[in-house]
Amino acid sequence: MNNVKFDIVHSLSGIKAEDWNSLNNGHTVTSYEFLAALEETQNVGEQSGWLPSHLIATSNKRLVGAAPLYIKTNSYGEYIFDWAWADAYHRSGLDYYPKLVSAVPFTPTTGPRLLAADVNIKNALANAILSFTKNNQLSSFHCLYPETEDLSVWKKVGCLLRKSIQFHWTNQDYENFTHYLSSMKSAKRKKIKQERKRLVDNNVKFKMISGDQACEDEWEFFYNCYQHTYNVRGSNPYLNFNFFLELKNKLGKNMLLTIASQSGQRVAAALNILSNDTILGRYWGAKEYIPGLHFETCYYQTIEYAIEHGYKKFEGGAQGEHKLSRGLEGVETNSAHWLAHPQFSDAVGNFLDREGAAIGEYHENLTTRTPFKTL
């Protein structure tokens, strides 16, 4: 590794998109275009609490490794919750922020965090990240939703591993939605049929559009729905409209809009992201409440699309046990953590041991509540 140079860059603007993407294996949300769109539309930066501080590794001026990194001054938009850790630091008279995070901002989906083809480069990237954390006297480092195959790298450099639960749908070579429903228990199958029929009876129809084919008015309607979801909870959305327009321009073919209309009047919208063989369910909103509208817009329409177009998996986003009865099953996701303070690191390690056991029991319990027929 003597000929590899490591640098921190506070913007992707000085890196060629093709160089970054050559290390990314086709994952949409860690692509140059997605991460650069966040920066260019100022959804990340000092004002958001996400300061880009990406690590790059070069050899003979060629990019051989990278890691999306952000110095964080809060814990918003992460979906792996460490507020209690921050509070414990504060009550002890210590500063938890700033901290360092490897993640895709506001996007709780598993994917590459160590972008490199060579495992030796991955190991070197992990070591360089912890060195940066220590040298800049940051309280901690957190890798959120890394790929399972990289967990050994994080453990090797001294990180604590944490598990959480998401709900994902897996395509079992279904021929169509009816075939999919036939794999479910009678009561679950009947409920889904009733939910879908109620919407048909209420004259609710759906349109699915590739992001590059959707007009700006349709994107604007989606954003108004997305914004409304936050407003009814008394908060502001993380992402601005310009970000979604950038996605349309840069990654439109990887975006899938679902728009629901009732009697010709648009009432709801959802946005999914297409990434290799996986659909990532991300953003949604509705202008009015209609029973069953959320499940149809966000889940059933997407599952039907996944079956028709041969996608292997649909990730339903963070949390939501209600997804279980819709056919999204509980799966374990991961994160890795390193804390500079030895006593706090020990305390967090003990906590994660207990939490991990509870997560394991919860996951096992979820498998017994599957909506699918058992052999």
Report on the architecture of this protein.
The protein is of the alpha+beta class and 375 residues long. The protein has two domains: 4-163 and 333-368, Gcn5-related N-acetyltransferase (GNAT) (Aminopeptidase, 3-Layer(aba) Sandwich); 172-311, Gcn5-related N-acetyltransferase (GNAT) (Aminopeptidase), CATH 3.40.630. The protein is 37% helix and 26% strand. It is built from eleven helices and 14 strands. The chain has helices spanning 17-21, 32-40, 83-91, 119-135, 151-156, 177-182, 186-201, 216-231, 241-251, 293-309, 342-368, and strands at 4-9, 50-52, 54-59, 62-67, 70-72, 99-102, 140-144, 160-170, 204-210, 255-262, 265-275, 278-286, 313-318, 329-339. The strands form two sheets. The chain has an eleven-stranded mixed β-sheet, with helices on both faces. It has a three-stranded antiparallel β-sheet with strand order 1-3-4. Strand 10 (255-262) and strand 11 (265-275) form a beta hairpin. Helix 2 (32-40) packs antiparallel against helix 9. The protein is globular and about 65 Å long. The model has no long low-confidence stretch (mean pLDDT 96).
Query: Domains counted in the coordinates: how many?
Result: 2
> What is the global morphology?
globular
- Rg calculated over all Cα atoms: 21 Å
The SSE order reads: EHHEEEEHEHEHEHHEHHEEEHEEH
What is the makeup of the main sheet? 11 strands, mixed
- Structural class by sheet pairing and helices: alpha+beta
Contiguous helical run count: 11
CATH homology superfamily of the largest domain: Gcn5-related N-acetyltransferase (GNAT)
Helix content: 25-40%
- Give the strand content: 25-35%
Cα distance, first to last residue?
52 Å
Low-confidence stretches: none
- Tell me the quaternary state: single chain
Number of strands: 14
Q: What is the CATH third-level topology name of the largest domain?
A: Aminopeptidase
Question: Per CATH, which architecture of the largest domain?
Answer: 3-Layer(aba) Sandwich
State the CATH class of the largest domain. Answer: Alpha Beta
Spatial arrangement of strands, main beta sheet: 2-5-6-7-14-8-13-12-11-10-9
Mean pLDDT over all positions = 96
